[in-house]
Amino acid sequence: MFRHTSRLQFTSKPDKPDALYAMKLQELIGGAWGEMTVSQQYLFQGWNCRVPGKYKDMIMDIATEEIGHVEMLATMVARLLEGAPSETVAGSLDGDAATAAIIGGMNPQHAIVGGGGALPSDSNGNPWMGSYIVSSGNLLADFRVNVAAESQGRLQTARLYNMTDDYGVREMLKFNLARDTMHQLQWLAAIEQLQEDGLGGVVVPDALLDEENQEHSRTLWGLSDGQHAHEGKWAQGTAPDGAHEFTYLNNPDPLGDIADAPAPDPMLYATYNTSHDGIIGKVKDKLGS
Predict the structure, then answer these.
(1) What structural domains and CATH numbers belong to the chain?
(2) 168-205: per-residue pLDDT in tens?
(3) What distance in Å separates the CA atoms of residue 23 and residue 111, rounded to the nearest whole number?
(4) Which family does the record assign (predicted)?
């Protein structure tokens, strides 16, 4: 059961309306890394968590908080759109409403679809998609995705912070930045806790390590013109799991056969060279395969 309280987590009041910035702020609502994504991602991870106790409780705490972040941003967007489109857009470029609507004005969907309110979409008007969320049932894999989500979200918030000088907007974004900092650290700590509790190793999943082709589980393949990849910790020394030793192999030979497709069914009317099989056979004979 969820309960709603009318008070926001933090004040969301701009100093003045700004329809263009309202459009930009939509990215933090309905973008791939926006609050709708993380709220739904954490909710499904929490609902699917098979480990009762501290992990499930923590996931549900942060998931519920993120719902509140969506409301904060939606409220800010509505207040940034105050007076739009007639007042804000018309006045944004010295009263030239036509030019303002094209260059400096609002997202028209804010007026046409949202009635002057926020939308479940990104800054380009693309609708939010449930396919953005990740909930695999493996907490270690999910927590790593969550670190990335909070990192990308904080990055976008920081960029938007520098796109406005509105004091009220910046005060809200300062709060959001701080919570994104906390959440990054929280998920990193949760990853450490999982490993300490024996619920996850370094590689996900911590299984089939003996069955896999171990010859290829430690080697960085040099497949580009760059000459310095071998200088990193990922190409030499002990791997983070303590069990693998990294090596570097420059310009490795292909290990597979020729990527030729079989002749198509004639009823599909696909273009096909009838001499194809003969040519491939000669090549394979030369390669000894």
Answers:
(1) 19-196 (1.20.1260.10), 214-250 (no CATH), 263-289 (no CATH)
(2) 999 999 999 999 999 999 999 999 999 999 999 898 88
(3) 11
(4) Belongs to the manganese catalase family.
